[in-house]
Amino acid sequence: MLPEIPEGVVWSILLLPIGSFITILMVTRPYPKLSGYMTVGTIGLAFLFALWVLDSVIASDGQALPFQSHEWLTINSPVGHDLVVNLGLRVDGLTAIMLLVVTSVSLLVQVYSQGYMAGDTGYSRYFVFMSLFTTSMLGLIMVDSIVVLFVFWELVGLSSYLLIGFWFHKPAAAKAAMKAFIVTRLGDVGLLLAIILIWVKTGTFDIAEIQELAVAGLISVNVLTVFGLGMFAGAAGKSAQFPLHVWLPDAMEGPTPVSALIHAATMVVAGVYLIARMFPIYEVADDARMTIAAIGGTTALIAALLALVVVDIKRVLAYSTISQLGYMMLALGLGGYVAAIFHLLTHAFFKALLFLGSGSVNHATNTFDMRKMGGLRKVMPWTYATFLIASLSLAGVFPLAGFWSKDEILSDAWGEQQALFWVALGVVFLTAFYMFRAIFMTFEGEYQGGEEPEEEGHGGDPAHPHESPWVMIVPLAVLAVPAVLIGFANINGGVEHILAGALPAETREGLHEFQFNWAIALGSSAIAIAGIVGAYLFYGAKVLSSQAVSKAVRPLHILLERKYFLDDLYEGIFVNRLLLGGAALLAWFDTNIVDGVANGVAGTFRFGGSGLRLLQTGQVQVYGAMAFAGLLLAGGLVFLLNPL
Amino acid sequence: MSNELNLDYTLLTPEFCLAGLAAIVLGIDLFAPQVRKEWLPYITAAGLIGILGLSLGWVEKESDFAGIIAVDNYTTFFRVFFLATAAVVVLMSAQFVRDRLKNPGEYYALLVVSTIGAIYMAASRELLTAYISLEVLSFSLYVLVSFARMDPRSNEGGLKYMLLGAFASALLLYGLSFIYGSAGSTFYSDIAAAYAGGTESFDLALLMGLVLLLAGLGFKVAAVPFHMWTPDAYEGAPLPITAYLSATSKIAGFALLLRLFSSAFMPVIDDWQWMFAALAALTMVLGNLVALQQSNIKRLLAYSSIGQVGYMLMAIAALSSGTASALLLHMSGYVVTNLAAFSCIIAWYNLTDKEEIADMRGMAERAPLLAAALTAALFSLSGMPLFAGFFTKFILFQAVADEGFLWLAVIAVVMSFVSLYYYLMVIKELYISKPEEEGRLQVPLSVTGLTAALAAGVFYVGIFPRHLFEVAQEATNLLFV
Fold first, then answer.
1. In chain B, % of residues over pLDDT 90
2. A465 preceded by cis ω (within 30°)?
């Protein structure tokens, strides 16, 4: 047992990536190798400190370590609340688990990036952005104030924008980056309003204080419901929940290690973290909680269905991520706080592994299109083996990590909401099916030739695929270990104990006691295996034809191919018609209607032949007239609102 | 109130110095040989900075000149504010004026004179003095907007601005006469005293006065529906003057509004609060939505600044000591950000002669520092954390919500979100599109330095809003006694 971690060391977890960010930006940018090593070194050290944090938190039974908040901005108000923004750390069981996930996956992804990004012209820039991301993500999970959390939350979004658009000369990447930024910030509108609301009602930004007030019943349930839904809007944006999930598949245009780190293991779970952090509020605000459960269930189902039809391996994984995030939200909504975070933990490892595996495949074949792959098992044994392990884990096959966490979620759902339980069970089948569809298409059968490299392509000759270099294989192998074993972490309730310690006592008592349910465990395993067999019949043995099925249910297939028409709805109707259309109408009114009238009038105001044609003279009068109309309107309102 | 008038002229020293500076600048232009004109902007800027230092001597002093001009922390704040803004605009103009405009002496002298007007708008404690200060600022601006005499757009913009400005002045004066008729005085304190015991149930003269006042001042700050001159004047004006319009002219209007409504009309707040709330909502929505449609960077910033005016008007609607200091903070952050943006745009225009958004494509490749600074400024305007815009907006919205205007805060947050869209469109051009021509552009060192300093200011306000906020609190705490 180590001594309890001093506050300075915890701060240094945050300061290390900041240091690397600044150093690369200012000093080592011309030396790409050095920049890469710097990033790996700092995050490695941060990982060690995160282990120390975990040790200290275990010693404190998961309760928050006694750190003081530091005053950063105080606005005294003679009436009402003082506005106080503090900079402080909240380090408890939940933080410790999140720190472990973020630092360990970051470390492995950064190592992997040394190989994957080798030779890219923006190598140093890549590590600048990565360090910025790591900083913001670590800040997000460690701070004790909801405003500072929001600051880091936005910075995470910003660095995600920069990283998705990393290859900004690719139009698709640029577009995806912008879409991601805008869609997630749409959710943030809700989050920001929630923060303003809770401050107006309670006068504090301190997370622990808000929790205490909520469980003590000092904030009305209606306020908490609105607050909770506002926060969930933000969480739904970041964690790609229906109907804001549309940005995540497109975000796959970024470099694959970015997808593994940001869009699978860390940033996208920020929403889940936020809801878990505010869990005591949802225990009071039941309506908000049930909304989360319903949206989580919907997301899990619709995303899993989409994963059945896409042919881009990264997009399969992206939809799978959305679906699994929906799973976590579902668990949170049903009161399964421990199950959700446990699933977050296991998911981070196997999903990062899957993404890195897809990157390795891409390194060999230069494509993400599964129709151009096949037969890679023989030439890429390491990639294949680790990918298979991760897929089995994701499918929830005993005794891999995914089995344990999924089982807890299913048990919670069974106890709380039967309808959602059946949805969750259906998702188990779909998950196993689409993952093994991907495996059969990628690794089995005949090799379909890959794709010719573009100018800045990574990897070698796609005609002769080969295993990736060691710097990429080692992270895969290392990640495979937790993907198998991390599920056992909670077998004695260890994870549960420290997670529960992070909650106020009143909420802790209300948590479900996890009961291992043989029927659910066996049932869900059987369903997962059925999914695998199904995939084998279609894509392995090919005794069934997927074309025939998709023809048979053609309308459904089109619905899925067009992604439920949501992109068309958003872009075509919301953005183009309503927003831009409305804006165009206003702009037209603002300039043209006036101009139109003016030009008619203007004929009489022309200074013919003088060279200086005061074409717009009439316009001024119309402007004046409009202003006068505005004035009359205001005057009219005066009378209306103040009856004589 | 004024049996013993305090006629202490030393209180007005900074403004006397400004008038002197204007005369010197004009004189150099008239009498010095051609070569020396290169130095004019630097002489002017040095003079402005010197006077800025001088005006710091009145920190924590509280006095007034004959009851009509207050010299208190509020005045000192705006003295520093306007002098610094003017100095930056003068420096930004150096290359632009040398290459494109005639009569540099008049240009810089008018900038200096307009600053006097702006300062007295903040300092006035009497309606007519406030009005005259406003005209001093406006007349200088009418000339400056149409300063590019050979450019028809500049002429058109200037003429429109002047005609509509005259219209607004008429409304304003008419409103002032109603107020005088109702309250019996033009001194802010007497007006407050006249209404202190409450008004009759329906005081038509007061209400008409307020409506007209609002319309007149609405013109000056470009509140919807009194904003129509803005895009034309912004587009037509020489670029540094566009920057000046978006900074000093606008902020001076708010400085006047804030002092007037907090120290004269606070007792009748119920009569005008809703007017400002309605104006704020309209202004935010229209400014931000129409900005989505703009293809010219000056027009885009014109509409985006209209949107910003909407946020600022909320603070007047929800007027309290909390919102007042939040407003000062937000205005400071906004001006630093806007000047940073304009500094990049001016530098780009000097190098390429382009001001359409589409023509900025590939700026990242040709002038990386300008592109980075412009991006920082645009992120700040859209309210991203780390940049000035986040905390200044956050504190402002929070203060407004706390005064019971949650619905306005909701509109403001949604509109901030919308604004992200058009700022990102610009950023996309800077970074993603290929440049029309190849090759790095040589940005002059002085421009690089100024831009970097302003960008650093954007981060400074964003990360340590506390320092500026404390100053803003000091500046406003006397308004509400």
1. 42
2. no
* DSSP code for A143: B
Q: Kindly report the number of other CB atoms within 10 A of residue A81's CB atom.
A: 17
Residues 6+ apart with CB under 8 A from A243: A566
The pTM score is 0.85
Residues of B with CB below 8 A from A623's CB? 160, 164, 228-229
How far, rounded to the nearest angstrom, does the alpha carbon of residue B453 sit from its chain's CA centroid?
A: 20
Main-chain dihedrals φ then ψ at residue B363, nearest 5 degrees: -60, -35
Burial of A346: CB neighbours in 10 Å, binned 0-12, 13-18, 19+:
buried
Task: Write out the DSSP string of B166-225.
Answer: HHHHHHHHHHHHHHHHHHS-SBHHHHHHHHTT---S--HHHHHHHHHHHHHHHHHHT-TT
Residue of chain A whose Cα is closest to the Cα of B415: A189
Neighbours of B53 (CB within 10 A): 12
Window 46-65 of A: residues touching B by CB (8 A cutoff) are none
In whole angstroms, give the CA distance from residue A602 to residue A619: 8
Residue A602 pLDDT exceeds 50: no
CB–CB of B432 and A582 under 8 A? no
Residue B388 distance to chain A (closest CA, Å): 12
Residue A629: its chain B contacts at CB < 8 A? 225
DSSP-assigned letters across all residues of A482-539: HHHHGGGGGTTTHHHHHHHHTS-HHHHHHSPPP---HHHHHHHHHHHHHHHHHHIIII
Q: How far is B456 from chain A (nearest CA, A)?
A: 15
Give B356's strand partners: B296
ipTM of the complex: 0.81
Helices (H), A241-310: 247-250, 256-260, 270-277, 279-284, 286-307
Half-sphere exposure of B373 (CA within 13 A, CB side): 28
Q: Does residue A468 register a pLDDT over 60? A: yes
Q: Write a three-state SS string for A256-270.
A: HHHHHHHHHHCHHHH
Position A234 scores a pLDDT of 92
Q: What is the pLDDT of residue A259?
A: 84
How do residues A177-202 score in pLDDT, each as one tens digit?
A: 888 888 888 888 899 999 988 888 88
Q: What is the pLDDT of residues B422-460, one digit of tens each?
A: 888 888 888 777 777 777 888 888 889 999 999 999 999
Residues of B in contact with A171 (CB under 8 A): 432
Amino acid making up residue A374: G
User: Which residue among A73, A193, A634 sits closest to B215, beta carbon to beta carbon?
Assistant: A634
Nearest to A631 among B211, B289, B379 (CB): B211
- Which A-chain residues 595-624 have CB contacts (< 8 A) with chain B? 612, 614, 616-617, 619-620, 623-624
- Residue A60 pLDDT grade (very low, low, confident, very high; cuts 50, 70, 90): confident
Average pLDDT of B398-415? 90
pLDDT at A605: 39
Residue of B nearest to A194 (CA): B410
pLDDT bin (cut points 50, 70, 90) of residue B261 is: very high
- Which positions ≥6 away from B363 have C-beta within 8 Å? B348, B370, B371, B374, B429, B430, B435
Which of B167, B384, B413 lies at the smallest CB-CB distance from A193?
A: B413
DSSP structure class, residue A284: H
Q: How far is B358 from chain A (nearest CA, A)?
A: 16
A-interface mutation test, from B217, B292, B299, B469, most A Cβ less than 10 A away? B292
Contact between A638 and B394 using a beta-carbon 8 Å cutoff: no
